[in-house]
């Protein structure tokens, strides 16, 4: 705490201490006010301005210091100044005092609270930014809500001072009038309880609930306004309860849930069932990575007491294995399976005609139109194409197209360029390098995996370089050229241009949501980056939802599945209750070797957001099983609340990091701390012990040193 804060805190504390030490509370009693009424009235008649100013200052001080007595002063204001003038004086003084109390709490406490609980306050701050004035107004209308507590708590938020002032002024007016009016009849008041009868208190509660009711009514009219242009088009009966567009992870799970609860649901897919993950992303890439890892292990057989062996393989066979893996998993996402589950599956392209009608251009040339109560858009994403001159001249593949193109090759591309240093680019670069390609990876940014901590990015770079990848970070791709069949990429680094010859070019510079061709533009739904949704995954039309990559904020298969539950339940049962999508515990993994897995905060994010944390690290090179597997590298890094075992975030780098992370995901989801992990039995020898040992490192750093010193003395005494 700086000197200024210390002095202000000391001054406020001194005022509070003086109030109680000098027993000033005796002047803020009903008996004292009634006994002093005559003399106070005489003084007011003699010096009205001075009395009003003193009363005003005292009232401001009492409310600013959150001292008991504001109620009595309000009665005194009514008794001395009458209803009109008393209401004006008390209303203004109480608002100024409340605002000062709020500002004091903000100045003295907000930075500390934000630093310790910043991440958990994000949702509150967003809510305050959006509807803070509305909720403050509602609470101000209810006298049973302690005003002093509201002043202090609101000071910890980002509500604007002027907003706080005028909303408090209006919100407290009804209660102020009630008390001031009672003060005008102070001779008849025996106790404070006689002022507010249960009926009057109930009236105030209803008054406080009125804005909430008004908000609901406004919401109703807002929805009607959104649908106004479609007036007369809403059918009286519907063909379906739900139409789902897209059969990737988000669409499949949405349709599955709808079928389970016996809704009539249609799933529309224009291309392959299973979406990107099954056909182009997660499944084929992991099959490729597994083959590449085996080739790597063969080359390093000496690490396992065997001979180093150059793997002899057919690249076509490797690609055929990938196709076989996809075919084996495909029945899980097939038309036959979902039809058996009760989902109507239509193969074709869907277009939303109006909020309740979907037109489907079937792949067989026919057209089918369905009316539906709700729609879920789960169309996924496609690889982004960089605006690189000459790209079409040299030809390129993406994470979607490379599987078909490379399946036609007889051998691994000799010279391969990978554009992009994100997870997809890193996974493909390492895998193809391990299969024998000369890989050059080009990343415009300063590091690979830019969303990770610096040490993780550096470790990933070293891992790829060790496998033969030439990593060029800080290099901007300028243009491509194809001269006499020689394909070249020109890049720039620190003002110097450099040419890279290649045989194949993989563009892995990110993915863009599929937003065009579904009728969204005609509906007035933005298609700039993703489909804008609220916390319930609703678009501007409450009956149209979005889930998965089209909605964001994460382009992860498991997040799409996670969102699908909210989209399905809200779409089918939203008239009873809407559920906010929960992104508090989202894990993800980059499947390079060693794997990089994380959940919650990393250090860079904690510093950026001002979240206080402690860092505990356990190095996997000390783990028995990792040593036995000749794979002893990486670490488990855990961020916790200072002085507590509550987990804020975890990063694991190492073999099977994605599997090890699951224990921390479970712990964070259910509020379990490191002590719980430490007290859990982990099988020996397994990689999972790394989690226990990380918890042990935290425990060792938080030993009760003084208690242990007394225990040592006890043992010394026991030995005589």
Quick structural gist:
This protein is of the alpha/beta class and 720 residues long. The strands form five sheets. The chain has a five-stranded mixed β-barrel. The longest helix is centred in the first third of the chain and has 71 residues, at 70-140.
The main pleated sheet reads as:
5 strands, mixed, barrel
Residue stretches low in confidence (pLDDT < 50, at least 5 long) are none
Percentage of β-strand residues = 15-25%
Tally of extended strands? 21
Side-by-side strand order of the widest sheet:
1-2-3-4-5
Alpha-carbon distance between the two ends: 49 Å
Q: Total number of helical segments?
A: 26
Number of domains: 4
Rg from Cα: 34 Å
The overall pLDDT, averaged over residues, is 88
Structural class: alpha/beta
Q: Give the assembly state of these chains.
A: single chain
Explain how this protein is built:
This protein is α/β, with parallel strands linked by helices. It folds into 4 domains: 3-216, no CATH class; 240-382 and 513-573, FAD/NAD(P)-binding domain (3-Layer(bba) Sandwich), CATH 3.50.50; 391-511, FAD/NAD(P)-binding domain; 594-705, Enolase-like, domain 1 (2-Layer Sandwich), CATH 3.30.390. Helix content is 49%, strand content 17%. It is built from 26 helices and 21 strands. It has a 5-stranded mixed beta barrel. A 5-stranded parallel sheet has the order 7-14-8-9-10, covered by helices on one side. Strands 17-18-21-20-19 form a 5-stranded antiparallel sheet. Helix 3 (37-46) crosses helix 4 (48-64), helix 5 runs antiparallel to helix 8 and helix 10 (249-260) runs parallel beside helix 20. The longest helix is centred in the first third of the chain and has 71 residues, at 70-140. It is globular, with a radius of gyration of 34 Å. It starts with a helix and ends with a helix. The model has no long low-confidence stretch (mean pLDDT 88).
């Amino acid at each position: 705490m700086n000197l200024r804060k210390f002095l202000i805190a000391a001054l406020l504390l001194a005022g509070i201490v003086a109030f109680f030490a000098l027993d000033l509370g005796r002047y803020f009693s009903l008996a004292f006010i009634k006994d002093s009424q005559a003399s106070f009235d005489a003084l007011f008649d003699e010096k009205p301005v001075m009395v009003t100013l003193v009363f005003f200052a005292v009232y401001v001080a009492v409310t600013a210091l959150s001292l008991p007595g504001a109620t009595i002063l309000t009665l005194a204001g009514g008794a001395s100044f009458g209803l009109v003038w008393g209401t004006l004086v008390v209303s203004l003084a109480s608002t100024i005092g409340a605002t000062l109390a709020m500002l004091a709490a903000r100045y003295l406490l907000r930075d500390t609270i934000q630093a310790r609980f910043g991440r958990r306050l994000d949702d509150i701050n967003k809510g305050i930014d959006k509807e803070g004035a509305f909720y403050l107004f509602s609470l101000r209308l209810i006298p049973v809500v302690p005003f002093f507590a509201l002043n202090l708590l609101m000071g910890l938020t980002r509500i604007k001072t002027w907003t706080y002032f005028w909303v408090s002024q209006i919100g407290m007016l009804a209660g102020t009038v009630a008390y001031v009016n009672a003060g005008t009849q102070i001779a008849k008041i025996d106790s404070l309880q006689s002022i507010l009868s249960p009926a009057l208190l109930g009236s105030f509660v209803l008054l406080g609930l009125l804005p909430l009711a008004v908000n609901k009514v406004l919401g109703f009219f807002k929805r009607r306004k959104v649908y106004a242009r479609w007036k007369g088009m809403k059918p009286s009966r519907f063909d379906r309860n739900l139409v789902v567009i897209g059969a990737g992870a988000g669409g499949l799970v949405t349709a599955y849930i709808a079928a389970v609860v016996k809704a009539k649901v249609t799933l529309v897919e224009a291309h392959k069932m299973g979406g990107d993950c099954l056909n182009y992303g997660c499944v084929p890439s992991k099959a490729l990575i597994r083959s590449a890892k085996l080739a790597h292990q063969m080359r390093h057989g000496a690490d396992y007491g065997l001979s180093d062996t150059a793997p002899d393989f057919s690249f076509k066979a490797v690609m055929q294995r990938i196709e076989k893996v996809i075919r084996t998993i495909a029945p899980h996402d097939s038309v036959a399976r979902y039809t058996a589950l009760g989902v109507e599956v239509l193969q074709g392209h869907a277009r939303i005609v109006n909020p309740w009608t979907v037109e489907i251009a079937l792949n067989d040339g026919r057209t089918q139109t369905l009316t539906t109560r709700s729609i879920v858009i789960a169309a996924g994403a496609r690889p982004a194409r960089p605006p690189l001159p000459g790209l079409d001249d040299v030809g390129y593949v993406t994470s979607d197209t490379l599987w078909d193109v490379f399946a036609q090759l007889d051998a691994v591309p000799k010279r391969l360029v990978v554009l992009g240093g994100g997870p997809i680019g890193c996974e493909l670069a390492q895998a193809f390098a391990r299969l024998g390609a000369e890989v050059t990876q080009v990343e415009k940014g300063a590091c690979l995996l830019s969303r990770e901590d610096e040490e993780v990015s550096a470790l990933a770079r070293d891992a790829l370089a060790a496998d033969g990848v030439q990593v060029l970070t800080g290099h901007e791709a300028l243009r491509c050229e194809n001269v006499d069949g020689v394909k070249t990429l020109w890049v720039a680094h620190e003002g110097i241009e450099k040419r890279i010859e290649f045989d194949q070019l993989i563009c892995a510079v990110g993915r863009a949501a599929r937003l065009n061709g579904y009728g969204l533009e005609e509906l007035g739904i933005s298609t700039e980056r993703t489909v804008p949704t609220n916390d319930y995954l609703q678009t501007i039309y409450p009956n149209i939802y979005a889930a998965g990559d089209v909605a964001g904020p994460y382009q992860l298969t498991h997040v799409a599945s996670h969102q699908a539950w909210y989209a399905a339940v809200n779409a089918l049962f939203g008239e009873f209750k809407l559920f906010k999508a929960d992104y508090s515990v989202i894990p993800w993994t980059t499947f390079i070797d060693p794997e990089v897995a994380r959940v919650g905060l990393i250090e860079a994010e904690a510093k950026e957001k001002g979240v206080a944390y402690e860092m505990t690290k356990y190095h996997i090179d000390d783990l028995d099983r990792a040593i036995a597997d000749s794979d002893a590298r990486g670490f488990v890094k855990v961020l916790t609340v200072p002085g507590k075992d509550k987990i804020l975030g975890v990063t694991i780098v190492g073999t099977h990091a994605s599997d090890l992370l699951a224990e921390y995901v479970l712990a964070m989801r259910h509020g379990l701390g490191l002590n719980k992990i430490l007290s859990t039995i982990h099988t020996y020898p397994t990689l999972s012990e790394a989690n226990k040992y990380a918890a042990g490192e935290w425990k060792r750093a938080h030993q009760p040193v003084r208690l242990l010193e007394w225990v040592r003395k006890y043992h010394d005494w026991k030995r005589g």
